[in-house]
Structure formats: C-alpha cells, structure tokens
Amino acid sequence: MGQGVPPRILDPTGVMPDTGQVAERRRPPATAPRDQPRLPSGPAARRLGLLVGAVLLVLAASFAAITQRDHEAALEDGWSIAERAAYAAAEHAERSLAAAHLITDRVAETVRREGPDAYRSPAGQAAFAAMLRDAPQIGSIWVLDPAGRLAAASLDPDPPPVDVSDRPFFAPLRGGADSVLSPLLFGRISDIWFFAYNRAVRGADGAFVGIVQASIHAAEFQRFQARLGLGPGGRVGLFRASDGVPLMLHPLPSSPPTDPSAPEEGLQAEALRLPAAIAPAPEGRFEATGPGGERLLVAWRVAGEGERFIATAALPRAAALAPFRDRLVGNALLFGFATAMVAVLAWGVATAVARSAADRRAAELGRREVSAVLEATGDGVFAVDSGWRITFLNRQGALLLGRGQELVGMELWDAFEAAIPAPFGACFRQTMEARLPTTAEAFWVMAGARLRIDVHPRADGGIVVFFRDVTAAHEAARRVADSEARLRRVLDSVFSFVAVLEPDGTLLEANRGPLQAAGVTLAEVRGRPFWDGPWWRDDQAARVRVQEACRSAAAGATLRFDLELRDAGGRRVTLDFQIAPLRDEAGRVTHLIPSATDVTARIAAEEALAESETRLRLAQEAAEIGVFERVLPGEVSHWSASLLRLHGLDPATHGPWMTEAEHLALIHPADRAMHAARRGALRGDPAHTRFAYEVRIRRADTGEPRWIASRGEILRDPHGRPALVRGVNYDVTERRRAEERQMLLAREVDHRAKNALAVVQSIVALTRDTDPERFRAAVTGRIAALARAHTLLARDGWDAAGLRELLEQEVAPYRGEADAPERVTLDGPDVALAAGAAQPLAMALHELATNAAKYGALSRPGGFVALTWELAEDGGLVLRWSETGGPPLAEPPARRGFGSSVIRNTVERQLGGHCRFDWRPEGLACTLDLPATQLRAAGGDGG
Question: Which of 936, 700, 692, 710 is nearest to 838 (CA)?
C-alpha cells in the first residue's frame, strides 16, 4: 500500500459518502425542527379503511353465525331433555298399569266368587296388604258394589258406604265396558289426587257384580317425576289417548274440582293442550304455551296396551336457552374486544406509515454520524454486505492489516492474500447466517499479530467486524492463568473444603466443592470477608464463631472445632472445621488456611427421607388419595389421615389404626360378604400380587353411600405367604354415577325387557294344566315372582339384589300370622346377587314355596321350613331348603313334576349351578349351588 494515501472510507450500512474523505462529526443545530409523523391520506387512507371494514364485517358475520348455531344447539338440548323425560314417564306409567292389571285380576276373581264384601275381613285386608307390597306403584285398592257404593278398601278395613256412582268411570263399566282408565280425581275419603284402573266384575251369567279399582296416587307419581331433570319449571302429564283427558299432572292442580261428576272440565285449564295431530304418531314434539303464558318445549309419547295413553314432558323454553344466554354475553364481550383490537391495529398501521417518512430522513443523518464514530474508535473496523462485498474500512483497520483502498469493493474471501484464520471465518459465516454476534481470537499472518474480533449483524443483511491486537495481553494473561490453574488444581484435588485468606480474613481462593455447594462462583465471593460468605451468612452464631477463629489464626493460633450450620439449601450440616496460619521465612502470618470436612452424610440422608415423605403426604392429601398398610397376618391396618377423612372419620379423634371389624362396618351391607370372600381368595393365591376393585361404603359422619376405588399390592415372603398389604383408596362416586345414568335406560329397555319376556314366554309355554283357573293361577304366581325380583333390581339401579330381601319377598305369604310362630325361617350372611341372577333364583324359590304350600310342610298347620345359605370356599353360594312337619314321604315322587323341572332348568341351565333333591320321610330337602359369577362382582383387599 502506498504511503501517504488515506484509505477509502465507506459507511458500514453500505452507502458511500459524497467524498472519499473522512466525514466530519457534526451535530445538528439545536434549533433544527424535527419532522412530525402525519396520518396517511388519499389512496392509502382509503385502502386502510376498506381493509378495516372488511375485517369488521367478517367478525360480525362470524359472531352472528356462532350465535345462531349456539341458539339452535341449546334448543335441541332442551328438546332432548324433554324427550327423555317423556319416555321415562311413559315407561313408569306402563309398569304401574301392568301392576294394576295383575291386582285387579286377582281381586275381581275373589269378588266374582264371594261378592263385594269378601275383602272386609282381616284375611281380605291382609291379602290387600300383600298385593300392595308386591306392587309399590299402586297406592290403594277399592271394591264397589253394583249400586256404586264403597264395599271394601285397602286404606280402611271398615269403609263408609260412600256412593261414587257419579264418578265418570262407573256408567261405562256398568253399561258393558270391561275396563276404564279414570281421569285425574280427588279422593272423597282419602283427600288425595289419583287416577285409577277400573275393572268391571260380572258373574257367570254376565250380571254386573261390582267394580275393582287400583288407584295410582299422585304422591308416588310426583316422587318419580321429580327425578326426570326438568328443573323447577318442568311439567309432566299423562292423558287418555282416546279423548286427551288428563290422567295425572305434575305439578298437581292448585285446588280440587268444583264439579265431582265432571272433574276433567276443571283440569283442562291446568293441563297442556294437546295438538289434534298428536294421535296418529307414536311420539313427537311441539311447542306450547303453559297456563301462565310461558313457552314450553313439549315432547310426547303414546304407550300402553289396550288402554292407550299419552305421556308428555315440558321444559320451559327460557330454561333451555339459559346456557345460551350466558354464553352469548361472553361471545359479545369477545367480539367487542376483537373489534377494539382491530381499531387499535388500524391506528398503529396508520401511525407506522406516517413515521416511515420521518425515519428515512433521520437515517441519512444517522449514517454520517456512524461513520464519524467508527473512525474515532481505537479498534479496526470493516463492514461486509450480504453478498460478502467489503463496503467500509476505517483508518485503524487499514493500519492493522497493512492494506487499505484496494480492499473496498472486493469480496471478503478474495480481499486478503493470506488465508483468513479458521476461527475468524467461522465467526463471519455464523453471524451472517444466524444473525447473532460472535467473538473469536487467533493469530492472523496478514497482521503479524494475535487479533480479537467481534462480529455483529447489520440491518441490511451484512456484518460489521471490530478487531484489535491482543498479542501482549494474551501472553500476560496466559502466564497468570497458568499460575492460577496450578493453584486451582491443588485446591480442587482436596476432598474437603479448603480456602486461602488474607490475614484480615479476605477470601482469595476456594476449592470447587464449597463453591458448588453454596451455588456461587469464585468471582462472586473473592475479595469479601470469609465470615460473610454464603456458607454461614444466615447463621449468626456460626458467623461470629468463624470471625473469632480468623482473628485468633491471624495472631498465630491454630484452631479445630465442630461447627454446626445450615447450608444454602436449608440442610443442617456438621463440619469438622480447622483454621491455621501460613507464615513466610520471617515468621510473619501471610495467609490463613481454613478447611472443613462434612460429617453429616447420615443426617442429610435422614432429612432428605423425611422431606420426601412430607411431599408425598401433601400430594396425597391434595389429590384426596388415602393410603393404607397392613402387616400380615393381622387384622389392624394403618390408615393415613386422608383415608380416614375419605370414610368420614376425624383423624384427630380416631387415630391412624383401623381394625378389620371397623373397616367392614363402613362397607355397604350388600358388598361385605363379597368383599370378605374375594379378599380371602386373593390372599390364598400366590399368583396374585396386585389388586384393583371398587366397593361401596357408608361415610361414618353423614351415612352417605360413596364408591371407593382400591388399588394396591400384596407382598409375600419367600414361601409365598402374604406378608404385607399396602395400597391407596380414592373416591370414584361421580364416575360411577355418571356411568350408571348413562347405561340405566339402555340396559332396562334392552337387556331386562328381553330377559323378562323370554322367561314369561317359557313359563306360559311350559305350564301344562287343563283347568284354565289353575293354569292362570300358576302363570300369575310365576310372573309375580319375576315382578318382585324386577322391582327389587330396579330399586337398586340394576346393579345387584340383596339375597335376604329377595328370599323374604318370596316366602312372605307363608311365614304365618304376626302373633304365631314363624313357619319359614331364614339364616345366612349378607350376600349381593348379580343382576342377572335375581329373577331366575326368584322363580326357583317361588316353585319351592308353591310346592310346599300344596303338598309339603306348609300344607299342614304344624309344618316348618328352614331356609339357610352360606358362601362356599370357591366364592360361590350354597342355599338349602329343608321341610319338616309336613305329610310323611314314603318314597320320592314317581315322576318329575313341572315345578322341579323349572327349578332344575333355572339353576343348572340359566345360572350354571347345581340342584339336588332329597325326598326324606320328614320332608323335602333341596340344595342349590350357585357359582361365584352369579354374585355381585368385586375383588382385592381393601386394607
């Protein structure tokens, strides 16, 4: 490069100044006005306005479409609720009328033989009570004589002879109708609302003998309808399909009818008006206006065999749309927020456009100022554009590189005769590609020195490089680093805590261990008093003791003692602490050397374990998970506080220990026997190490039933014997309830109806009798047994049926008078039958009881039946029927009767069990073995 020729100067932004000389650094005059941004106008303003209007139009259209769809979805949800309620109301009414048919058949037969007064006796009243127990849907039974006077009633053993011939059902029945569904009536004796199934009774010659009425009370109907989920404004009704007269309403009329002879006239104002087109279709929906002017969503369903009726369920339209209105407020707020954001964005765009012109004017002045600054710096600087072309080189850079004007305009990689050092080339490429600052240091032959470079990205896609000569500094730093590295290696090789202090206690060096333990670097603590270090600054007693030790060591003493303190993590540590003076050749103390050895490994491990247990306990309590543990063999478990609260017990008063008897008392009675049997089976099988099951409990504080899921494991000793049971319990009631609600309707309609119809069909097909009356009695009795089991299952939600309650229902008619010794005794543990086993077992027991009443022990006054049951070792059920005191048996029957065939087929084919008959001289003994699969499923050990 020629002497005396100044290097060519370029702006690092890539714009060449007007001359090749160095630009003067000038400040703008203090009075120079600054450009103020102005909002755009003309075509730009119109385009911006059109864009904002289009965005707002799209937002408004989206809001309207979402609102419309949400409104329609909310209405459809309301219709679905009404349709489910109408279906359930029709199903309930059909079951009630089916029970009324059975009861009126039985009562009408007795009235036909013995007259209307047949049920005024105590035996008749007992028969009424037995029938009402079997059919809880029926509220009362009434018998009227041919003149329409009350002859007998289940509510009063000696009713007054009230004349009800003006009731709307009397005239049609006396005129020849076989049965009539009465409208909703208000009782003259009972003072309650009801509707009734009325059956005419006629003698063999066709003469009118009287009327039997099975009344369905409003109270029972109201209890059922309250569970349909229609809410406070919901309405439910039953109407005769023939004329639309109300049979039952919810809510009930506000007052009794004023005209007893035509009560339906007053009810029309209380009921919904059914459309004329409702009759031909079996179900549907319509909108109606309620008595108070409220719009209702009404669903209806036609049901019934013979006496057809219409069930309606109405949900207020306002209630169905309430969730929609709540969501509409949120959507409106969101739309308003979006509109405001569009307006703010539009204002920001307009302002940005206005500022761009002012920014361009300011950029030109900035370029000149940057060039002046880069020339004034002591570093060499060159700039490269995005195409690797050198656009700027300052005077100091030209001096360091020994080249100048000829480099400007050349590509970086071609500009230097000597190769660019690899670290520098890597930095150039990394900054150019990643747009991030980089730094490197290396020897560059072209400069004949070690250079340090700092590379920065430019706004236009290029880079700016700052570089300086660091040869002398690097060498000095290397010598210092070598000395410090040797000292550092010595300190870090020491296992214990070692430091080097000035005589006044100022920290100079410390090994890596204490620094890492305190979470600090050496740079953060170097130069500070040793007793102000992070190791004991929060422990005033330790800090004072260390400070006194430093003063004693500075005076020439060597000290050693145990020092207890807490580290930065809060752990208690015990140090074997020692501090000694370091002297020079003259004996003067030049440094202090403190050291310490941590002797708290065992204490730290114990504290860590305790902290872990505390976190686990807090997590379990937060998640409402209870933990139990039991050492086997043993009947006492250790329960966590959260597990006690889960069962409704107060940990402060109960304590952590729970006996097996106390635990069993908290389990639902229907699940206890199964729980105990499955627990014993699991313990006895070495292949089982884990268990998972769900069981019902009753909370100790409220008595509320809850579903509890139990998960855990059984640890066994080397011989396979159970040694420890531990696990967790948590509440799954809401999930179980949701599952039950979801499956209840489908299971009841599909599975149970099919099974019941199949059993009834087989009963009718297999019952053989030439006498129609005996044929009807046999079929009726067997169907009644099915109905009782059906009612029991329905009451428990089709989940299980209690064995004892099922047996009590089947033998109730044969147990004797209240003041006489029981003729049938029951003895056995609480057992829950699976839902599918209840009806078949009820059939088998009905046949045993019927046979005993006709031919066995119950056919004589002194006869006696003992009914016992127990759980078998395999988890199954053994049920024994034993008769004594009946007619003596010389030998077993010559042929198998229909009853024994029904029992054997039911137990062995349907239930997969085994049946044994022992015809002893003193009476029949029958043993029924049921497999464990016919009991309510469960498993595991609940702790």
Answer: 936
Mean pLDDT on 705-731 = 84
Q: CA-to-CA distance for 681 and 726, rounded, in angstroms?
A: 17
* Beta carbons within 10 angstroms of residue 369's beta carbon: 14
Residue ending a domain, among 469, 498, 517, is 469
Is the pLDDT assigned to residue 789 strictly greater than 80? no
What pLDDT sits at residue 286?
A: 83
Residues 6+ apart with CB under 8 A from 482: none
Q: Which of 894, 876, 859, 862 is nearest to 934 (CA)?
A: 876
Q: How far apart are CA 246 and CA 36, in angstroms?
A: 82
- Would you say residue 269 has pLDDT above 50? no
pLDDT surpassing 50 at residue 13: no
Q: pLDDT by residue (tens digit) across 463-474?
A: 999 988 888 888
> Of 938, 929, 937, 936, whose CA–CA distance to 911 is shortest?
929
Q: pLDDT at position 14, please? A: 44
Q: What is the number of other CB atoms lying within 10 angstroms of the CB of residue 295?
A: 15
Do 435 and 530 lie in one domain? The reply is no
DSSP-derived 3-state class of residue 712 = strand
Instruction: State whether residue 711 is helix, strand or coil.
Output: strand
Structural domain containing residue 670: 623-731
Closest CA to 694 of 395, 435, 425, 939: 939
**What is the pLDDT averaged over residues 448-458?**
89
Residue 335 belongs to some domain of the structure: no
Q: Are 152 and 159 in contact (CB under 8 A)?
A: yes
Per-residue burial over 650-663, b = 16 or more CB atoms within 10 Å of its CB, e = otherwise: eeeebeeebebebb
**673 or 488, greater pLDDT:** 673
Question: 729 with 712: CB under 8 angstroms?
Answer: no
Helix H, strand E, coil C: the string for 839-882 is HHHHHHHHHHHHHHHHCCHHHCCCCEEEEEEEECCCCCEEEEEE
Instruction: Please answer whether residues 119 and 200 qualify as being in contact, where contact means their C-beta atoms are separated by less than 8 angstroms.
Output: no
Look at residues 409, 454, 413 and name the one whose alpha carbon lies nearest to residue 436.
Answer: 454
The more confidently predicted of residues 840 and 795 is 840
**Integer angstrom CA distances of residue 910 from 914, 930, 934:** 11, 11, 10
Phi-psi region of 509 (alpha: psi -120 to 50; beta: other; left: phi over 0): beta
Cβ(846)–Cβ(782) under 8 Å?
A: yes
pLDDT digits (tens, 9 = 90+) for 842-896: 888 888 888 888 888 888 888 999 999 999 988 899 999 999 988 888 888 877 7
- Cα–Cα dist 939/943, whole Å: 12
781/131 Cα distance (integer angstroms): 12
| 340 occurs within a structural domain | no
Alpha-carbon span 375 to 377, nearest angstrom: 6
Preceding amide of 633 cis, omega within 30 = yes
Q: Which of 919, 934, 810, 917 is nearest to 872 (CA)?
A: 934
User: Alpha-carbon distance 795 to 137, whole Å?
Assistant: 12
Could you tell me if residue 39 is inside a domain? Answer: no
Return the pLDDT at 627.
Answer: 85
Closest CA to 522 of 509, 504, 533, 536: 509
Kind of pairing between the strands at 824-827 and 864-871: parallel
The number of folded domains in the chain is 5
480 and 398 within one domain: no
630 and 703 housed in the same domain: yes
**Cα gap 708→667, rounded to integer Å:** 10
- For 892, the token pair is 């077993």
Q: Write the CATH number for 921.
A: 3.30.565.10
Structure tokens at 31: 């009075």
Query: Tokens 């602490």 identify what position?
Result: 577
> Do residues 463 and 382 lie in contact, with contact meaning Cβ atoms separated by under 8 Å?
no
Predicted local confidence at residue 263, as pLDDT: 52
